[in-house]
Design goal:
By secondary structure, the chain is of the alpha/beta class. 42% of the residues lie in helices and 18% in strands. The chain has twelve helices and 13 strands. It has helices spanning 19-31, 48-53, 62-71, 90-103, 118-123, 131-150, 187-196, 217-232, 254-265, 274-278, 288-302, 314-324; strands at residues 8-12, 36-39, 77-80, 83-84, 108-113, 153-157, 162-167, 179-184, 199-202, 240-243, 247-250, 283-286, 306-310. The strands form three sheets. An eight-stranded parallel barrel has the order 1-2-3-5-8-9-10-13, surrounded by seven helices. Strands 6-7 form a two-stranded antiparallel ribbon. A two-stranded parallel sheet has the order 11-12. Helix 7 (187-196) links the parallel strand 8 and strand 9. Helix 1 crosses helix 3 and helix 11 (288-302) crosses helix 12. The relative contact order is 0.13. The model has no long low-confidence stretch (mean pLDDT 94).
């Protein structure tokens, strides 16, 4: 049996209101032993759209913020979890990403996705097309960035992406190319990620005890892993499988923590009982040792070895990072 994938850890944040705050945060993430600092690809500020879509206002645009974070650190990888294919001109995004990788000496993780938030699309004046069309565009953008980063002449003639007649510059520092992260929940996107990406990001699962397919949250996570295994084939040992716990607490009172979370969630989600949260793939609560045991169990059953934690919990979660990365 192959050795299990080593654990990796990242922090995702969407908020910093000054250069000093962002610089200090990037350096803090690096010093705590996290591998990567992720932003998100959202653009709306406070207002009715933010309230309606549940998108928290994000102060920093990702490309500039990633570049600055890389400049202020030496080992920290930077990325966006994930760029939306419809928010950027694909050929320009490929060049921006290659430039970040070059100027960071090979520390880019390139996350890309098909877009999901219709309210944000409409607020930005964009058309939110049906999922099959957005996923087809995602497939074509992935082909384009790989072609651009190869340094060879580009010839991508898809339904939505048509780029040809030149070779991409600059050539990224990472060879053969920067690591690509693709996130999703449905079979088509997970299969694409398993075939074409280096990191498969598992979208958060729902909070209902059983989904429309009759699966519990834990069973849904295992179903997604089965899709990835089948599509990846021999590539599977080389892939990282990434997921983000939505609720995180390093605590000696996990039962009390779960009760509080459940009470808060039940105002909008009546089914979010403590027992459901305890086994939910996007919840981690307990002592460092309990959380480590849970992460080992989940790596075995759902494949997840790459964990992205929210900024607010990065300090309390650091002992888990230290123990699982031999710091």
């Amino acid at each position: 049996m192959a050795d299990p994938r080593p654990f990796r850890f990242a922090v995702q944040t969407t908020t910093a209101t000054s250069a000093a705050e962002w610089r200090d945060l990037a350096r803090r993430v690096e010093s705590l032993g996290y591998a990567t600092l992720f932003l998100a690809d959202h653009y709306i500020g406070p207002g009715p759209v933010s309230t309606r879509t549940l998108l928290r206002p994000q102060h920093l645009a990702p490309i500039a913020a990633m570049t600055a974070a890389a400049a202020w650190t030496t080992t920290l990888r930077v990325g966006c979890r994930v760029f939306c294919v419809d928010y950027h001109v694909p050929a320009a995004l490929a060049k921006e990403a290659a430039t970040i990788d070059l100027l960071s000496d090979g520390r880019l993780e390139f996350g890309i996705g098909a877009g999901t938030n219709q309210g944000e699309y409409e607020a930005m004046g964009l058309t939110f097309h049906e999922a099959p069309r957005r996923v087809t565009k995602l497939e074509e953008v992935v082909a384009l960035v790989k072609a651009h980063w190869s340094g060879e002449p580009i010839d991508v003639r898809g339904e939505h992406v048509r780029v040809s007649g030149y070779a991409g510059l600059p050539v990224p520092a990472q060879r053969p190319r920067p690591r690509i992260l693709i996130g999703g929940a449905k079979k088509r996107v997970l299969s694409l990620a398993a075939r074409e990406a280096d990191i498969v990001s598992m979208s958060n699962v729902g909070w209902t005890p059983r989904n429309d397919a009759g699966l519990t949250p834990a069973e849904e996570a295992r179903r997604r892993y089965a899709v990835v295994r089948e599509a990846a084939g021999a590539r599977l040992p080389d892939l990282d499988l990434e997921s983000s716990p939505y609720l995180v607490s390093v605590t000696d009172d996990p039962d009390g923590t779960l009760d509080r979370w459940s009470a808060n969630l039940r105002t909008a989600l009546p089914e979010a009982q403590p027992a459901l949260l305890r086994e939910h793939p996007n919840v981690l609560a307990g002592s460092p040792e309990e959380i480590i045991d849970r992460l080992h169990e989940r790596r075995e059953t759902t494949g997840v070895n790459y964990i992205t934690v929210p900024r607010k919990q990065m300090d309390e979660f650091a002992p888990v990072v230290a123990k699982l990365t031999d710091r």
